[in-house]
Fold each of these.
Amino acid sequence: MISNIFLENLKRLIPAENIKLQEPMNQHTTFRTGGVADCFLTVQNGEQLRKLIPYFRETEHDFFVLGHGSNLLVSDEGYRGIMLRLAGELAQIRVCGERIHAGAGASMARAARAACEHGLTGLEFASGIPGSIGGGVVMNAGAYDGEMSQVVETVTVMDMEGNLLELDHDSMEFGYRDSAIKNRPYIVLEACFHCKPGDPEKIAAYMEELAARRREKQPLEYPSAGSTFKRPAGYFAGKLIMDAGLRGYSVGDAQVSEKHCGFIINRGNAASSDINRLIETVQQQVEEKFDVKLEPEVIRVGRF
């Protein structure tokens, strides 16, 4: 619960208009599901964040840094803590020569467009990924043979004491949908990408080609979190799910997409509990039939 004393102290750290109570999380996730968060804060710069994080720890308030909600499943009961959205200075993009400095709150698609506009190649794969730079860096997001690890040069993070650290590429320890930050108490503030010069027209054409492939093969007309499961070694998650006979299988309005079995979609009125139950059913059926454990890419927040 958010006490009046806690709330008044928050107003000394960030503007009151950036504080919302009982915020519906279905407005902030691409699944379009989830209950309310006790408190929802929009953080405009690193200095605000530097003051907030130690205060949360001091008062023992749980918090979660929200990207664009594209890889998130929030419980129907909501989140009994504080959601942080990074905006303002923390969502800016600057291009300096062959380097793109992108704030954690910026979208990967916007960073890809900025690269294209400045004749820089390397970020085309990110043009259709709906997540934020921060989330993309943490999970080493990728698509169509490209991933963040191929272009990240440095990442600026904040620790739980409010200190700034700069991690180089090797320190990030990138793996498949993984990075060192996943298991460390760091908050991504900015990433620096090193791209290569290219022809803006060719870059734009390739981005449009990727967009067309997505429209053709992915169920973009429905709310989803993109690929629901990580690719298991030696297999494709969508093929395993299809071969398990689960194409179109549904729990409530949550459904394994008939267009791409690697996607779980919300056909309109799914609850987070429906989606979670469907994820667990798919995992169980695939393991029983093929002895392969599917690991969700989706992050669950709250009680399930």
Amino acid sequence: MISRKRGFAAAAIFAVAVSGVIAAPSNAASAAQVVTIWNGSDTAAKDQQTPIIAAWAKTQGITINVVYKKDMRNEFIKAVPEGKGPDLMVGAHDWTGQLVASGTVAPIVVGSLANQFSKDMRSGFTVGGKLYGMPIYTENIALVYNKSIAKDPKGMTWDQLLASPRGVTLPWARGGTANDPYHLSPIATSFGISQYTRNNSGWTKTIGYTGPGAAKYAAWLAANGKKFVDGGWDQMRCNVQNGGYAITGPWIIGGLQEKTSTKLILPDGTKQDCVGKAMTADEIGVASFPSAGGQTPHQFSGQYGYWQSVKVAGSPNAIAVGKVLRYVGSAEFQSQFANVKGAERIPANSTALGQLSNKTLAAFGAAGQNAYPMASYVFQDTVWAKIGAAEKALVEGTYTGDPGDYLAKAMKALQATIDAA
């Protein structure tokens, strides 16, 4: 799987098991007004969203019962067919395919809220043209730089960025096993290709790194891949602090505000000591990606949201569940949640995005308006690995023959693997 500092699914899957109740129902509370939510936060203390929901729900006469789970997805899939489990579950959008296939989640109706979410935002929770989840926040990468040192990248080309004094840091390591189609996606898609082809329902199962656009991307990567600065986590932070650019996400914000001391591996292979001064929030710059191939860049986004259990339909608390689901999709909730100190959440709701007090996050959100949600197929890990291995060979010059032919052959083999799955 791709390597990122923070991932939606990883946070939920590896959460520590602990159960708790927020605003536990009293004897007088009607069962019709109790809504149970499963959440993958480590502990109640780290759950920054339920307190907001519970406070609102109290004004509606609704009691929120939240249970913290370790193996949340698998327990949900097992419990719901037995008439058990929660009314709502919150997690990463790339669980949606498996949840829909298991028959445990129901399509939702968002009504007028639909206008508050972009088509790409909704597509993360869409399967077969139906929306199954209410998006609450998203993460995407952008071009990050130090506004007090580096030139504003707006209007700059990739040639200019790569040739700048500190260059561009990409999270990979030459000669190692790392590969990163996630962070290279805005470059690849600017050649008119995407990881899979897309239709009105989102991703298909047909690999999209093919055709003339893919050949041009392969040639570009073979010619320019070596120009990136190697980027471990500390190397990326330090290079940005000293005036370089980086392809990264909002998870770097806190790290940039801390002093860094490390070694950089420059494009020519030499090592250089690097000490980075802690940046202020106002110094952190975020910009959209330039186009390498002439078309619109589309980076990936990870989305987080709420699914509704199929057991809710016809149940006594169905109306209360619907109210909670609409509330978490509202600008009111998402604005409060995103503005919690240390939350570093980009609201999925466009109105809430415009109300962000954290201007750095708002800039990430603006830079991610064309982002594609990551696919959630069961074979997705294989796809990341195979595309990444092909890109790595192009960057390091270990491929044979023409770059475009090499990539085409690798993608043909990958498609055969998918078709046989």
